[in-house]
Specification:
The protein is built from 6 helices and 32 strands. Among the domains are: 151 residues, Cupredoxins -  blue copper proteins (Immunoglobulin-like, Sandwich); 120 residues, Immunoglobulin-like (Sandwich). The chain is mainly beta. The strands form 6 sheets. Strands 9, 10, 11, 12, 14, 17, 18 and 20 form an 8-stranded mixed beta sheet that branches. Bound molecules: copper (II) ion. Copper (II) ion binds next to loops.
Length: 558
């Protein structure tokens, strides 16, 4: 693991480059051309990577979701027209104060100006979906109205379940994989007929402790067996929370760079595969997952972004199916620049770390602050992915040079800046008492071409662990076989106690909700589920693994 987190030296030599076919003229100018594709091209001309000129499109900034008045008004129990669901837990206590309605629908989208328009599925028809901006201790309710085409052609399922990743919510609002609902009222064969489903997001800190707040969350589809397809098709967006420290205002609290979409920029990092005709490719029958041949931020291949000469907060989210990212900030000579790392999986650390790179497995987030006032106006910088990966199995240990320039940043004139990079961020809550904690072991393995946990495949009706509410447990997570598995635990964040018997690296010292295990790794994490009871999931966040069927159900019991 130390290799993966500390290797700072690009090692890709010329022989390797030749072997991968990326020394050709086209390839060296097309950072989007990933080595994997060059060899694919020989085998399958239908999958030749289309050349796309980088940095033509501006970085898309997701819209901010506006509140709405809902009719009929939502309730603890399903209302008229709503899909069947369990009642919302603690609804009276956390009565919703703000309401939203999202239309989940098909739409046209262009991934790059040289690509044809494509049909996507998006929250409000957008990719990424609109950004929710909420406040801690202000309870929200989101009505997801399913307007997807029932008789669609191509990949994906129009039956959806929405998961708020890192959400601290009751089981009826967690997007449990089999609690999906169809686009419109249909026959009795559909398990949850109905046109919409109300999700209750109380937005309170874990156990009411203001040290246990998550600020960068995301929402995405979690439909049993179709999560990979539906997220790939566009169903993902950001959900941000502010609080008395991370206030969203540069004049108050920690004074972090603020203004969502202005100086506080969510960045959905993904790869996608396009065929020679520039059409989006997806293989519904691929249980291993696959890598894309182009790299996108917020739904555009290699965009550019003009910044002012001041501080910005970037919120990275790895929303890919199988692609790891290790993000660097570089200048035009490919020299790595410093940035401040402030939050892991949306949780502010005790104090910022100065880093030159940050590793992100699927589902993981990293919030960083970059001070562009350090650069002369006119300077060009890049966000670069340097991790080498040519197989959905796992990233390689070497690094690409110069790597994949995913975003070109053009630094403008200096502008007033009230924000700071504070010396201290959020006081860290006490870890649970380890003495007497119950241990469970979870082994993630390949099994007959599918994916299992402790030798079993996901069954929504089978309870794999009954966890007592409020009691600490140590979960040992083990990645067997030759595959990497980023493991995500729902409902509450965890502390990483150890990786392969050693302490967690400083980047992982705070609370997390996803941990990226490389082949053979064993991690111990401390979990405790305090605020709700009922059914939740733990799973691999490699979506193809999760769909086939590397997922467990755990029930929190009183
Ligand atoms: Cu996996």
């Amino acid at each position: 693991m130390t290799d993966l987190l500390s290797n700072d030296t690009p090692k890709l030599n010329r022989r390797r480059l030749l072997k991968l076919g990326i020394t050709s003229g086209v390839a060296t100018t097309a950072y989007g051309l990933f080595p994997h594709q060059a060899s694919d091209a020989v085998a399958d001309t239908a999958l030749v990577t289309p050349y796309l000129q980088p940095f033509l499109d501006p970085l898309p900034i997701p819209l901010i979701k506006a509140p709405a008045i809902l009719a009929p008004p939502p309730d603890k129990f399903p209302v008229v027209g709503e899909a069947g669901r369990d009642p919302h837990q603690r609804f009276e206590e956390f009565r919703p104060q703000v309401f939203y309605e999202i239309n989940v629908r098909a739409a046209r989208h262009r991934f790059h100006m040289q690509l044809p328009e494509e049909q996507i599925w998006g929250y409000d028809g957008l990719l990424p979906g609109p950004t929710f901006v909420g406040r801690v201790n202000t309870s929200a309710l989101v009505r997801f109205r399913n307007q997807l085409p029932l008789d669609h052609v191509g990949f994906g399922s129009p039956e959806i379940a929405t998961h708020l990743h890192s959400g601290h919510v009751g089981p009826a609002s967690d997007g449990f994989a089999s609690d999906y609902f169809s686009p419109r009222k249909a026959g009795p064969t559909l398990r949850y007929p109905g046109a919409f489903y109300d999700y209750h997001y109380p937005n309170f800190p874990h156990a009411g402790d203001m040290r246990e707040i998550t600020n960068t969350l995301w929402y995405h589809d979690h439909r049993d067996e179709f999560t990979a397809a539906n997220v790939y098709k566009g169903l993902a967006g950001f959900y941000l929370l502010f609080d008395p420290l991370d206030t969203g205002n540069e004049a108050t609290g920690l004074r972090l760079p603020s203004g969502v979409g202005r100086y506080d920029i969510p960045m959905l990092l993904q790869d996608k595969k396009f065929d020679a005709g520039g059409n989006l490719f997806f293989d519904q029958f691929d249980t291993e997952g696959f890598l894309g041949n182009h790299f996108l931020i917020n739904g555009k291949v290699q965009p550019y972004f003009r910044v002012e000469g001041r501080k910005y907060r970037f919120r990275f989210l790895n929303g890919s199916m199988a692609r790891y990212f290790e993000m660097y900030l570089t200048d035009e000579r490919d020299l790595n620049q410093d940035f401040a790392f402030i939050a892991s999986d949306g949780n502010l650390l005790g104090r910022p770390l100065t880093l030159k790179k940050i590793l992100l497995g699927m589902g993981e987030r990293a919030d960083i602050i970059v001070d562009f006032s350090r650069y002369a106006p006119g300077t060009v910088l890049y966000l670069v992915n340097r991790i080498a990966q040519d197989d959905p199995r796992k990233p390689r240990e070497d690094r690409l040079y110069p790597g994949i320039r995913m975003l070109r940043i053009e630094v403008g004139e200096r502008t007033p800046d009230n924000s700071v990079i504070p010396a201290l961020l959020r006081p860290q809550g006490p870890r649970a008492n380890l003495v007497g904690a119950r241990r469970r072991t979870w082994k993630f393995e390949r099994n007959n071409g599918q994916w299992s946990i402790n030798g079993k495949f996901f069954d929504p009706e089978r309870v794999d662990a009954a966890v007592k509410q409020g009691v600490s447990e140590i979960w040992e997570l083990e990645a067997g076989g030759g595959w990497a598995h980023p493991i995500h635990i729902h409902l509450e964040d965890f502390w990483v106690l150890s990786i392969n018997g050693k302490p967690a690296p400083p980047e992982w010292a705070g609370r997390k909700d996803t941990i990226s295990l490389l082949p053979g790794w064993r991690a111990e994490v401390l979990v405790r589920f305090r605020d709700f009871t009922g059914k939740y999931m733990m799973h691999c966040h490699q979506h193809a693994h999760e769909d086939h069927a590397m997922m467990i159900r755990f029930d929190v019991v009183p």
